[in-house]
Amino acid sequence: MASLVRDLQRDALNQSISVVELLQKSLVVATKLKQDDFRAWVQLELDGYKDTDVPSYRVVHGSPKVFNPYRGYQPLIFEDAKEAELYSRMHFNMPIGEIEHSMDRGKGKSSGTFNVSYNAKVEGGLMKAIEFNLQPSLHVSTSQFQKILDAGRKIVLEWALKLEENGVVGEGLGFSIEEKQKAQNITYNVKNYIQGTFDKSPIQIETEESTQTQRIRSRVIAERTALLNQIRGLLGEYGIVFGQGPSQVRRGIAALLTGEDPRLSAMARELVLGFQAELRELDERIGHHDARVKATCAGDARSCEGRGTPRYRPAHRHRTGGRRQ
């Protein structure tokens, strides 16, 4: 005859069974046995730790970074080790189903990381202290989130084993009066809490879309560079040499086409005219992407084009020149 508790043990060992499904079955068993503490834990995992501190297995660690539309993701450097540790750690309180869904979506991604947004208050404070108007986020290895799923599966398995050890197995779809009485004497502590929590932060899987503008812009610039090299190569065959850089080639072509240079054949002139039109089109496309980048930087081009490494410097530290006490 089927056993609710043994079925739960099998499901906990079966990686093809989702953690959400496993917890839902655990909720049924805990409710039938009036295991209130365990049922409360299951509901927190399913619904999220909204106003409650999270268990230690839900604390994830990662690398704080900022997104620079020109340069991609850059490390965020902290001068204070305690601040670096604080912003490298996040207490994850979202429903476990959202974590599991994000893990499923992230399978096969080459980066192997999640880009996790800070909550609005933390993000705003970081952006003010960074000096540059770049959006910060925490980059966390997928293994950190797999740890949360594995912990949930392990807790259910250990609880189910403890139930069976105490003679509670649940034949069929229910439990006998004797089993329910035995269950009242069984305790399983899952409240391994730590102090403090961040607000709920959505997981965002790193995808091509997250750096789309930057990548398209880089590709168009590469196309323009190839065209400039082709123009210089062609004109070099006629003894015409331009300096390096797009502006040098633009001016040289304009001067060349306004006159009647005897070194250019009619066919060569037609080719140069075509190159000039193509160069203008690429310049317009790059200008379009530059405008999008500047909009992303909220008009602060220095924040995106700066060559320095983004650093976290609280405002009062700028005034006093010393460390925070």
What is the H/E order? HHHEEEEHEHEHEHHEHHHHEH
**In order across it, which strands form the biggest sheet?**
3-2-7-6-8
Radius of gyration: 30 Å
The separation of the N and C termini measures 66 Å
Number of helices: 13
What characterizes the major β-sheet? 5 strands, antiparallel
Question: Characteristics of this structure?
Answer:
325 residues; two-stranded antiparallel ribbon; 9 strands; elongated
Structure in words:
With 325 residues, the chain is an alpha+beta fold. The protein contains 13 helices and nine strands. The longest helix has 31 residues, at 266-296. The protein is elongated and about 105 Å long.
Question: Could you give a short description of this structure?
Answer:
The protein is α+β, with helices and mostly antiparallel strands and about 325 residues long. Helices cover about 55% and strands about 10% of the residues. It has helices at about 5-15, 20-30, 35-45, 80-85, 95-105, 120-130, 140-165, 175-185, 210-235, 245-260, 265-295, 300-305, 315-320; strands at about 60, 65-70, 70-75, 75-80, 90, 115, 135-140, 205, 310.
